[in-house]
Design brief:
The relative contact order is 0.09. The chain has helices spanning 2-6, 8-22, 33-51, 54-65, 71-83, 87-105, 124-128, 135-149, 169-176, 196-201, 223-232, 245-248, 255-268, 279-291, 314-317, 344-357, 374-385, 398-407, 422-429, 440-446, 459-471, 473-485, 491-504, and strands spanning 112-116, 119-122, 152-157, 164-165, 204-208, 211-214, 236-241, 273-276, 301-304, 331-335, 362-366, 390-392, 410-413, 434-437, 451-454. Strands 1-5-4-3-2-6-7-8-9 form a 9-stranded mixed β-sheet, with helices on both faces. It starts with a helix and ends in a 6-residue tail after the last helix. The chain is α/β, with parallel strands linked by helices. It contains 23 helices and 15 strands. The protein folds into 3 domains: 2-109; 114-179 and 186-308 and 494-507, 3-Layer(aba) Sandwich (Rossmann fold), CATH 3.40.50; 314-488, Rossmann fold. Helix 16 (344-357) links the parallel strand 10 and strand 11.
Length: 510
């Protein structure tokens, strides 16, 4: 019991925080930490033994260990309480299991808060990373609007990935203040996770009767405790559903990603609701929800809340206005990280076919590296060596991104699999026509006009579409007019509808 003896004051604080929400009469504080722990532990264990409710056992185990338990931990402890023949035996079993958790994950932080009847938003990756694509853009658009209009608690996982904690000031800035004062980045320290000192200063959060929102995909080992929160804690877990690419298109993704995503699906199958970002995305998650009914589970409710895609802020319109240059080559823009499913190798091939035909244009890529860029890098290098006008701009600021969209003749986004296809919607929001995939979520966006659809698996079809927008001025002018007439869906609308769908709708009994 040495581990517990050394941390009795912290244990007493955690037990008292939980006792405040579970017990009708909370024992008076004792100066001696050991006596305080004993006075608190006995009625809490008695309640858990009497009720045999998984949520009581879940929060008690979280309080004693300082770590959020796994589903198996909860099941095991409920069974122990049911079979124990005395209060002392029940308490000893709890403490032994707690020692196992602390031996595995280390000591918990000293400060703890039980947050009740609020909305806890897990923003771990967006808070700790300066990456700003896809999911992070959604988090950084939605959370500031929710924070302004509602009572929310932003949270991140501890270094051990077994406890939720409060955010540091720089992490809050990454989530709530990104891009302030016209900058593409908030003025925060770069580099990622918290130091040991930062982690020890953070407040450990235990949600109770809360709505836990997952706007990101669970990373690392967090899927385990998240699944237990969804299954056993009495909290309501809801999520934004982006796509099922890691399993549906596993042949285009690194092998470990599929395993990690399957862990995330373990959270989803016990969640209350998933809001797909498109009709195609919702269909994928709805199919999974129906599949888990074979396990006797209800599965999450799946709804569609279409993602937003605003253009540049009004203040940037003049700054990013296209500059007339009669001698410049028309620019074909391809935006997106260099992942295999983005199909950039097909874009390079189609472009080379047109250059060999004698067509003059510049091909520009914007986006960070993917998990395997070897073929893409070699393809670009070969074209550059051959004198082709192809450039890779890498990751750019928001200002430059909008400028590139608006100066391009058209953009091209022939992805093989997408949950939404933000570059398509952003290009249209800038009044720039798009060549995109003729199925799935990108076809949904194209229904607004301004798009030329193509089969992404047919190189000749892609080349034909590019040829049309380079040479057929009538077709190009029609699509340009359609793109300029598109009214993009705003982030204000998306954030409000997402809140209503994930939070307000799930506060009612299922």
């Amino acid at each position: 019991m040495t581990t517990l003896t050394n941390t009795l004051p912290a244990l007493a604080r955690r037990l008292r925080a939980v006792a405040e929400v579970l017990l009708d009469e909370v024992p008076a504080p004792q100066e001696d930490a050991a006596h305080d722990v004993a006075d608190l532990l006995s009625p809490l264990v008695a309640l858990a033994r009497t009720s045999l409710r998984p949520d009581h056992t879940w929060i008690l185990q979280a309080a004693v260990s300082g770590h959020l338990p796994l589903s198996d931990d909860v099941d095991d402890l409920v069974r122990w309480f049911e079979l124990s023949t005395s209060p002392a035996e029940a308490e000893i079993g709890l403490l032994r299991r707690t020692l196992s958790l602390t031996a595995t994950h280390g000591e918990a932080g000293t400060a703890v808060a039980v947050v009740t009847d609020t909305v806890v938003v897990d923003v771990t990756f967006s808070a700790q990373s300066d990456k700003h694509t896809g999911i992070q853009r959604v988090v950084r658009e939605v959370c500031p609007r929710w924070d302004a209009d509602h009572d929310i608690t932003l949270a991140a996982w501890s270094p051990s990935q077994t406890a939720l904690r409060s955010l540091r000031p720089d992490e809050r800035a990454r989530v709530l203040s990104w891009g302030q004062a016209g900058s593409s980045r908030a003025p925060v320290a770069s580099g990622g996770g918290p130091s040991d000192a930062d982690a020890s200063a953070a407040v450990t959060l235990i949600p109770w009767h809360c709505t836990v929102v997952l706007p990101e995909v669970a990373q690392g080992r967090t899927a385990g405790p998240l699944a237990a929160i969804a299954q056993h804690s009495g909290n309501t877990v809801v999520a934004i559903g982006y796509d099922a690419i890691p399993v549906v298109s596993a042949d285009l993704r690194p092998v470990p990603e599929a395993n990690q995503f399957v862990g995330y699906l373990t959270v989803i199958k016990h969640s209350r609701r998933v809001a797909g970002i498109s009709t195609a995305s919702a269909a994928e998650f709805r199919g999974f929800s129906e599949a888990v009914q074979a396990q006797g589970l209800a599965g999450p409710d799946v709804v569609e809340v279409e993602l937003a895609a605003e253009g540049p802020p009004p203040g940037l319109l003049a700054e990013t206005a296209p500059q007339a240059d009669a001698g410049a080559l028309p620019i074909v823009l391809c935006v997106g990280s260099h992942e295999l499913h983005k199909n950039h190798l097909a874009v390079l091939h189609a472009a080379e076919l047109l250059w060999r035909e004698g067509h003059a244009f510049e091909l520009a890529f914007i986006g960070g590296p993917g998990w395997d860029t070897s073929e893409y890098d070699a393809g670009v290098a070969d074209l550059v060596a051959a004198g082709r006008p192809v450039t890779d701009l890498g990751s750019v600021t928001d200002e430059e991104l909008w400028a590139r969209y608006r100066t391009a003749r058209f953009s091209i986004f022939p992805s093989l699999h997408e949950g939404f296809g933000l570059p398509v919607a952003e290009s249209l929001a800038c009044g720039t026509p798009v060549i995109t995939t003729d199925y799935g979520s990108t076809q949904e966006i194209a229904m607004a006009g301004g798009c030329l659809l193509a089969d992404p698996r047919d190189d000749d079809d892609l080349a034909s579409a590019m040829r049309t927008l380079l040479t057929d001025q009538g077709a190009y002018s029609r699509l340009k007019e359609e793109a300029l007439a598109v009214h993009p869906r705003t982030w204000d609308t998306y954030a409000a509808e997402l809140w209503d769908s994930l939070v307000e709708a799930t506060r009612r009994p299922r």
